[in-house]
Prior knowledge:
It contains nine helices and five strands; from the N terminus they run H-H-H-H-H-H-H-E-E-E-H-E-E-H. By secondary structure, it is an alpha+beta fold. The chain has three domains: 1-51, Ribosomal protein S4/S9, N-terminal domain (Ribosomal Protein S4 Delta 41, Chain A, domain 1, Orthogonal Bundle), CATH 1.10.1050.10; 54-101 and 198-211, Ribosomal protein S4/S9, N-terminal domain (Ribosomal Protein S4 Delta 41, Chain A, domain 1, Orthogonal Bundle), CATH 1.10.1050.10; 103-190, RNA-binding S4 domain (Structural Genomics Hypothetical 15.5 Kd Protein In mrcA-pckA Intergenic Region, Chain A, Roll), CATH 3.10.290.10.
Amino acid sequence: MARYKDAVCRLCRRATMKLYLKGQRCYTPKCSVEKRPYPPGQTGEAGTRRRRPGDYAMQLREKQKLRAIYGMLEKPFRKYVRTAERMPGVSGDILLQLLERRLDNVVFRSGFAASRPEARQLVAHGHLVVNGRPVDVPSYRVRTGDVVKIADASKSIVPVLQAVASAGGRPSSTWLTVDLEARAATVNTLPLRSEINVDINETQVMEFYSR
């Protein structure tokens, strides 16, 4: 299963914003963006004083940010874009909805994992059950009415306990009903754009792929 293996804090610094890829560390002064709020590399802080980037650079930056937030490589991410383009409605909103419906994202949004990478690992290692059946595919797309639960044998493992203990400090997802005690979440409805708290200009992402 392909995934990004380099330092994720560099992704946040490149985006000059928190992408919340390191769990609880992102909410503390230890966060790299807090300590060095400028892009990585030899130019360092001087790079922030360059002229305003062009349209292509802005579109590329938004695309890279969205990929990093959801932990996607280019090829599968492009498939999501093409799927969104074929579906009726606003393509950018549909793209975000498809990404939000990934099982690893639902686990993160429910508070059962401290970050999406950790949620992806929980799913891949067989700790999740959907509608009573084990699912180990992070890209599994949930539907309205689905019940996502931590497997009984995994409810007390350390990552889940730590994530649940700190879940109260994170914004809740209105399209999910979460029972932290039972380690279960129900998909009430498909998320609207207004319910997806991701600081992304999805229109620029779609424009990047429409060139």
